Amino acid sequence: MRIGILTGGGDCPGLNPVIRAVVRRALLAGYEIVGIKNGWKGLVENDTMPLNINAISGILPKGGTILGTSRTNPYKKEGDLKKVQDNFKKMGLDALVAVGGEDTLGVASKLVKDGLPNIVGVPKTIDNDLSATDYTFGFDTALNVAMECIDRLHTTAESHHRIIIAEVMGRHAGWIAIEAGIAGGADVILIPEKPIDLEEVCKIIKQRHERGKTFSIVVVAEGAQFKDGSMVTQEQKLDAFGHVRLGGIGETLAELIEEKTGFETRVSVLGHIQRGGSPTAFDRVLGTRFGVKAVELIIGKKFGQMVALSGNKIIDVPLGEAVKALKTVDEDLYNIAKVFFG
Ligand code: F6P
Fold first, then answer.
1. Is 127 close to ligand 1, i.e. is its CB under 6 Å away?
2. Which of the residues are catalytic?
3. pLDDT (tens digit, 9 = 90+) per residue, 204-218?
4. pLDDT tens digits for 54-87?
5. At 229, is the pLDDT very low, low, confident or very high (cuts 50, 70, 90)?
6. Is there a single domain that holds both residue 148 and residue 265?
7. Which of 135, 122, 124, 138 is nearest to 317 (CA)?
8. How many domains, in total, are found in the chain?
9. Ligand 1 pocket, 170 CB below 6 A?
10. Which of 106, 212, 314, 335 is least surrounded by Cβ atoms within 10 Å, i.e. has the fewest?
11. Do 78 and 151 have their domain in common?
């Protein structure tokens, strides 16, 4: 039995613990394992690396992915799907572990129907927006990084009597913003799920300053939208999965808030700092549990499934289900965050 493993989409802390766990569990089962480089690109280009026990030694605490990643979509370019199907055979694979978010797993789900049924998925993303799992690994690390940054912004905002806007990642869902905002004690939190009401934001800040506070912290998710549905993007060009490059909402908001409140406002864009670095214990453990379970699904010939966390149990769900809908911030959590606005 020969298993391939690939990591696709944006990297996140916890990918290496998954790779390590997959290799260790596969070797225990007597399987051979091959690393496919740079996500689906490696299957299009037949680009692999050997994965033995030495190759994965020492990678547990390392961020990123030793396999590399890309946002390649084999359904985008004519002929790439055929290359993936052919290379799967050329590599002599009996099964594949695809580790990724909505886009990577969406491709895996389609491939299962397009002649490569022996695939299992492992959910990753710092955005935590996959609906079939309570948590994706990577989120906890990003959340803690964002929280620490908000703590740091507090001390400088307070000293200078400023408003500071912390722009965090979160394309369709505001999980990092809402949880880092709650954990870091933000005064306003803006998420993609709730259109930005600028008048309301300024009212909250003014009221806060009227009661004697001389600084405020606003956390905004990069994908937050204004009431007219507009978003701030860095460029309009779409990637292979049809996404624009987000970023810049903090700057736009800072200008508007400063103009409307008269308070000096600064911005800090956390960006890829949230995706880098060593995974937290939670992400290492979750990645490890996911990796072991993925190989156990292969041993049990339970293909076309994705491993998931439900409560404190690792379960499996059909890949199709996993990518059907995005998990957005629920009303209950938002209402809890709102108690602390202002
Ligand atoms: O999908 C995770 C994510 O972190 C999004 O929140 C963000 O929009 C995107 O990746 C940015 O990725 P990159 O800069 O690598 O294209």
1. yes
2. 127
3. 999 999 999 999 999
4. 999 999 999 999 999 999 999 999 999 999 999 9
5. confident
6. yes
7. 122
8. 2
9. yes
10. 212
11. no
